[in-house]
Amino acid sequence: MTKKNYDREETLKLGFAGNVVEKKVKLADDQAKPWDLDTKFQYAGKHIPRFDGLAKASGRAKYSYDMNFPGMLHARIVRANIPNGKITDIDVSGAEAIPGVKATMLLKKVGDRVRFDGEGVAAVCATNLEIAEDAMRAVVVTYEKMAHAVIVDDASKDGAPIVDKGDTNKSPESVNINPREVSEDEINKRFAAADAKVEATYRTQVQTHSALETHGGVAKWDKDSSGNPTLTVWASTQGSFSVLDGLCGNLKLDRSQVEVICEYMGGGFGAKFGADQPTLVAANLAKKAGAPVKCMLNRKEEHLAGGNRPDSIHHVRAGATDGKIVVFDVTNYGTGGYTGGAGARNIMIYDMGASRKVEYAVKTNCGPATAMRAPGHPQGSFVLEQVVDELAEKLNMDPIEFRLKNDRYPMRKAQYEKAMELIDWSRRNKKGGEGALAGTGPKKRGLGVGASTWGQNGNRDGTAMAVIINADGGVEVRNGCQDIGTGTRTIIGICAAEALGCPLENMKVRLGHTRDPYGPASGGSVTAPTVTAAAKDAGHAAKLAFLDKISKKLSVDAAKLDISLGKVFVKDDPAKSWNWHDACKLLGVETVEVTKERSDNFRANFSGQVGGVQIAEVEVDTETGVVRVIKVVAVHDAGLVIDRLTFESQILGGVIQGMSFALFENRVMDRKSGKMLNNNLESYKIPGSLDMPEIVTVAFDISNGHNSAGVAGLGEPTVIPTAGAIANAIANATGVRVRSLPMTPDKVLAALAAKGGSR
Amino acid sequence: MNRFEYLEVTTLEMAGKLAAEKGAAVRAGGVDVQDLLKEHLIEPASVVSIRNVPNLQEIKAGENISIGPRVTLAQLAADRAVASKARAIAISAGEAASPQIRNQATCAGNLLQRPRCWYFRNEELLCARKGGPECLAHDGENQYHAIFGNKNCAIVHPSNLAPALIAFDATVKTVKVGGARREISVAALFVTPETDIHKEHVLEPGEMMESIEVPAAALAGGAKSAFAVVREKQTYDWPLLCAAVKLTMDGKNIKDARIVLGAVCPVPLRRENAEKLLIGKSLDESAARVAATAAFDGATPLAQNGYKVPMGIAMLMRAILEAGGLS
Amino acid sequence: MTDSPANDEREDLQNAFSRRRFLQTLGAAAAVSAAPAIANANAKTSEAEKITIPPATPLGEVKNFGPGEVDVKLKINGIVRTLRIEPRVTLLDALRDRLDMTGAKKVCDRGGCGACTIIMNGNLMYSCMLLAVECQGAEIETIEGIAPEGEFSTVSSAFAKCDALQCGFCTPGFVMTITHHLRNEKNPTMESVKQSCRGNLCRCGTYNRIFDAALLAATGGAGLPNTTEKK
User: What ipTM goes with this model?
Assistant: First the structure.
């Protein structure tokens, strides 16, 4: 990489109406000015249908699960049917004897431990799925069974069965005190002295990602012109390049021999990074059998082994004095399955005075947790938002007024105001369960609020974009990353077109081919801020290269040309212009091909965080305990809005998944057998059409700086506050708190009964 | 699914013969059989379809209503005569599952489907109903299980339709191989675990349902009915509880009543004690509450399903008022 | 409880018991017929006998398919296709794995999510809950059939315009459901649309935009994006 000269200085106008700041940034010579409040956009910020919407809505988009090849075999994985034990024998001979079975492989060997019901032991492939299933069932695995524990309470008891290794299932406690100079004594003193106190236990459940396209892929081996083996894998993934690395490592291949393709993928939510077991099985069995192999998990396997959000138990003490939170003291633990790890995050939003967090994880004989959309945050937020509400209630303060006194971020203040207006916050019952909104009948309504935050993520990270301009006017942008459904393909196209100046309808975007330039894995809400800046930078670079090329044919100095609104024009004589197509024709037999690495982030930004506020209105049937969400207003910022349509869809999805987490989803384990009982989509409950509230999504525009496009990630913050907001709304409707997720009718009735009946 | 031969027949007797003699699984709509096959709860050598047997998919409504065994839940829910004469029956069918399932699932299949208990439905678990020593729900996860009659097995009967049919004194007509026919009241169709823990109904091997009959007497005299259900999700979810209520009114006075609960017991549960508390009374909120409360007398909830009692009382009270036109 | 004798006993029993053999007897208990399980376990002995069925008796004829591969004729989107498959192959697997018609998605495979929704004889169905062999003679319509090649149906276009999709994996199923609803409901409303898609699940959370798309498509598609495929 050549050292660049960053002598150019530009001043950016950042923020939002009423909150504008100016910040200076240093730029390289060939870098366009970052987008800010002064930028006049041609496309960005409009409602633009996603580029691949029609392909998906017509069923023509080919997902990895949809790839079929002549002679392709189907694989199935043999899984442990006990939660804990040692393998004493694996016999695949019965499977291999079945006509149509082409290859088998072991994923474990005799003597290995299995640590959860559903852990992969062996794999088979056959000419069709039916025979593959016969073969899977014909593999005989015997075990020396060991006692197991599948829930936190069982696994953390003295003398509990050991889930995996060592002599305890509990991880060491981590103690985190903030600010550091505060002593434990001080925490205790602050609590003792607080005006308002809350001391309670909260629980959140295990949630499975339940992406509709399951994990897995299709693998196909070929040979290159020199006869060396090459491998192409169509994977359902959030990280095409991490799958590439995983395959290279597993199969001892170099990158030139492997391509991973993921043009469309059916949801991941954090569970699909890296080369997962079914993808590796497909690649290995394809090699062994000498034919392409498809290996996709079924729904049960997806629940058992496809990842999950850990549960959590929080014991909380918190106190507030004079309207300010002075102390937050939490002990938190949960289970991430046999691999452990169960962090919950709950103190990032408000100024907590002093906080102590004691945290540990408990291993259980369950499938391993993986990152799930804002890992740790929805759990922590469910607790934090209720605690904050309870403190406000005890201080006789409006919960939003109380939050504003403990929240320093200006955009969230504006967001609270917007959300309050859109839901008419004045209707809120002044006292839980009592008021015009609650009414006098058995069905009571209430309002509740929650807030969210997320970092300004995304970085250079080696990301680059290729831009190709053809003489027919067509422009293609290529990047190897994937679109997990968030609209990545579309926002890349918009940013590139915006920077290049070409008409949007001429723009095509190819994603998900790892032979194209590197792009990020989609986790931590990094994709949008990484790729939009890259697309802007590359679009600008393509513009310079294009103008350079055609300037010779136009006999105009390239520096005097510019492109805007689909027209090439002379800067000091705008009447002299060529429309895009005519300008492109000048390329003749040539094309313009530019690959540009993304520029670095700037330190200058409006806020180091993004913000969000959600207010929920619920109706609680106090006789049946059934909670219905009536309306949710969700206001979120994530820097510059590139495509308002997909931005709003992201908020919508966050709210709906948050509501699903709040009211329905729950992995149910049978303690005795160690098996998941609701390993389907029948009793693992995901809401449907009739459960939907009215959802008002507000894309809150902020010019944030931070990167050349000023874009931040949005996927994760939108799912964080919903459960807390709904819990607070239930409390406002009924006067009772449900401190355990999901807030199912039985729990609502129990809370009401504890308070003395439903009426 | 295991490998099986697929047979198509043109008579119910032949289907019955294949079922009795070959152990063939019979597909009407095929929903439950498909599910059982996929979970390997059944691994029959033969599957027999009655889709080509003529005249099984008709609803004949006159003074009485006759429902063919292959009438789909969607058909039943959409039938105007059924909706006007026996509202609870139409609603119970329309509230079941999802539109796609209702287009495939048949009335006979709905009555004869196997339980949805998650211990029963998991091929790797051997519960009492599948020949194991004990009901696994008793000390397990029983939030969706029975609160009545749950001593030996805590399944709930999964049919929405059955409580509604029982409220209308419906019967089923059956035919056996050789042509022997019988008529059984729907109320007597189901088997408690105490009678036989391995089956849910009294039909014999090869005995095929020919029709479901709703008698004229039950439809006469302005019978009013309601079907109520409580679910966790409002969309495509099994009931936590459901109830069919039928009232024969004389002005504001209740001449006759039927109260049948679903999803509370291994069989649909008629509550005659509660019915008696309504008969002869003038319908109002307090009468409905008294009866609804009585309907849940004697419940024996398990560790996690006690909520069904207060929830059920509220639901039933509303259903009684709705049936009487007071909601 | 975990270490109780009852538990050990159950495990022993589980081993001793041939589960397959036991459950085989359950087979007859399904659907319309009713062979009680354990109580009638002996009825199974007849399995070995070959039942002879005299032709043209009042019992009627039996058409036999399988258990091995058989020719199955399916009329899909107006075209009859002959497949060589076992009777146990579901309609969904026949479409996806044999005909490369991958618009219908396999998500739950148990009639719980709607991603595999097709229209059969005018009715909305889950293709995972049907055997291909029992769909012979039926008119099957898949998402591949709702618009000619190179074009998009009004419903698909409305979904794209309203962004009624995110990952898109549930989308073909929803499009089939909404297509069916709009064909059969002259005056679609928000409520009727919600009712119509009770049998479809979306995981990304885009329902509200699906409702909007359905109501937009119901207007006949005025203002929809071009319906010609962009190459």
Answer: 0.97
